[in-house]
Amino acid sequence: MWGTQMWGTQMWGHADVGLRIGAGIHRRGAGSVCDNSDVSSWSRSGDRHVRATALTSVAWIVAAICVMVLSVVPAAVASAAPATAPPQPAESVEVGPYAVTDTVTTASCAGSLYGQYQIMSAKGYVTAPLRCTDNFPYGTATPVDVHFTYPTSGAGPFPLVVLVPGFTGNPGYFDATARIYASFGFVVAVAFDALNLTPESHLLGISAAYQQNNDPHSPLHHRIDLRRTIVGGHSAGAAAALQTAQLAGPLEQATSGQVRLAAAMSIQPAAATMLISGGAISIPTFLLAGELDNTATPASVRALYEQMSGPAWFAMLTGAHHLTSIDAPEYNGFLNGETAWLRFVAGDDSACRYFAGGQWSPRVFPNFSEFDRNRAAASSPCPRSPRTDHLA
């Protein structure tokens, strides 16, 4: 967990990396440090302070109302057709060569009332028990924070992946996914603000990564390549990733080129999709849909894909429900495609053939019944990395 655990507050970051993009985006950052033993020495310097704001107080009120509503209204996933039999394991999950660590611990979501509700809502859609952190509304810890998972070896710098959960989703849902991503040589920041509906969460994650990259007391000091930042998420967090992708140009300008969005990965995007303009997204974008998903339907995800003016790829996973992407890795058929995409956009030549060039071979992922790319993607070369020795 991050050290400063205060409700009704907004974390404000380093003045040099204020992410002020237009009138609607405020200077955000991660204002505290992790409690895990391997990172207990992280600096608690003066630029990590917490400032209460009326805007954030309103956000928590809204969050509380949403939690109360969700406690009596069936979850969105309940609209999906229930699984009639236990799902079969996906193809074996590929894991990279790096040992990893993280800055937070998880436990069964059954430890809280709201977690128990989510478990009941997910019954029939996930195979493994959901894992949760203690962040509100699942516990008493702050509802706004950033958790890191990263390689313990290798000098880096490693590309950054900023993941945001779905609406009121717990960051612990991404625990296994983040560890697999990191095993391929990525620093993964799971950012959240209870609602996870807007680019604020992704910008919070980027600002936190900037701070740790520049903190000489951090184990991530100079180990993050912020110019290869990939924004992603699931459900509402996936839609927020696309909203953030629209800000790629202003973000790079606002940070004087220190931060560059290299790509976006949107896993079953739902909620606030009306705020997404595909024509405003120029960075490479991967959109993933589940065949049996009635929340982020394949048709709605494909419609977003067809709006994209920049390089875009679309994949649909056979038999997948809305929560398949947060299931245990052996039941998450999205994972191998996700890690291949991350390696591709980070400049790994061994993953390039899956997505680029005339001889691209997406059928290497047998569980995807649809796999398309638009004209801009078909004409795109493989991204080049300044250094790729950290990639598997």
Describe the structure.
The protein is α/β, with parallel strands linked by helices. The chain has helices at 54-70, 113-122, 175-183, 200-213, 236-245, 248-254, 298-307, 335-345, 349-352, 375-378; strands at 10-12, 49-51, 100-102, 107-108, 131-132, 145-151, 158-164, 187-192, 224-234, 261-267, 285-290, 312-317, 368-373. Helix 7 (298-307) links the parallel strand 11 (285-290) and strand 12 (312-317). The longest helix has 17 residues, at 54-70. The chain starts with 9 loop residues before the first strand and ends in a 14-residue tail after the last helix. Residues 1-86 and 388-392 have low confidence and may be disordered.
Task: Work out the helicity level.
Answer: 10-25%
The CATH architecture designation is 3-Layer(aba) Sandwich
- Biggest beta sheet attributes: 9 strands, mixed
Q: What sort of overall outline do the alpha carbons produce when their principal axes are compared? A: globular
Mean pLDDT: 78
The H-level CATH homologous superfamily, spelled out, is Alpha/Beta hydrolase fold, catalytic domain
- How would you spell out the order of helices and strands? EEHEEHEEEHEHEHHEEHEHHEH
Strand order of the largest sheet: 3-6-8-7-9-10-11-12-13
How many β strands by DSSP?
Answer: 13
Walk me through the topology.
Blueprint: E1 10-12, E2 49-51, H1 54-70, E3 100-102, E4 107-108, H2 113-122, E5 131-132, E6 145-151, E7 158-164, H3 175-183, E8 187-192, H4 200-213, E9 224-234, H5 236-245, H6 248-254, E10 261-267, E11 285-290, H7 298-307, E12 312-317, H8 335-345, H9 349-352, E13 368-373, H10 375-378
Parallel strand pairs: 7-8, 7-9, 9-10, 10-11, 11-12
Antiparallel strand pairs: 1-2, 3-6, 4-5, 6-8, 12-13
